[in-house]
Specification:
4 helices, single chain, 7 strands, alpha+beta, seven-stranded mixed sheet
Length: 145
């Protein structure tokens, strides 16, 4: 199925600490268990496993106005089986992978991964509607359905 049903949106968190706790719980990490590897269906050796690190996920919810914690349930399905994976060169010269998932409905998600020596690291997540998701399709398509 190219566009699965969208995961349930979570409520907006009342505080940054609550947003972080909500996101961490959905991703299966915590201060006590700070790292988790997620097996993907991406047939690219560097992307077969993605590391989620509790120390980095605060970055995802630091922009309070975005309410990104509401999309926490979109992240794991996107990491595991994205619709597309693009490698994109950034202004600082680094290469990052953009994973895009398309769901039924109007809200979609793009996950940005930074490749490190120990594998792929969850770095950022942005939600977008169908029209805006095209802006994340830059670089070289590595994987697509």
């Amino acid at each position: 199925m190219l566009r699965p049903d969208a995961p349930e949106m979570l409520p907006r968190a009342a505080t940054p600490a609550t947003a972080l706790a909500q996101l961490a719980a959905e991703l299966g990490v915590s201060e006590a268990q700070p790292r988790r590897w997620v097996q993907t269906k991406i047939p690219v050796p560097a992307l077969e496993k993605v590391l989620i690190d509790y120390g980095y996920i605060a970055h995802l919810v630091e922009k309070d106005k975005d309410g990104r914690e509401r999309y926490a349930r979109f992240i794991l399905p996107t990491l595991i089986d994205p619709f597309e994976a693009w490698v994109t060169k950034y202004e600082d010269g680094t290469l990052r992978t953009r994973l895009i998932s398309l769901f039924k409905g109007t809200r979609q998600i793009a996950i940005i991964l930074r490749i490190n020596r120990d594998g792929s690291l969850l770095y950022n997540a942005m939600h977008a509607d169908d029209k805006r998701i095209d802006a994340f399709r830059k670089g070289v398509l590595l994987h697509g359905k």
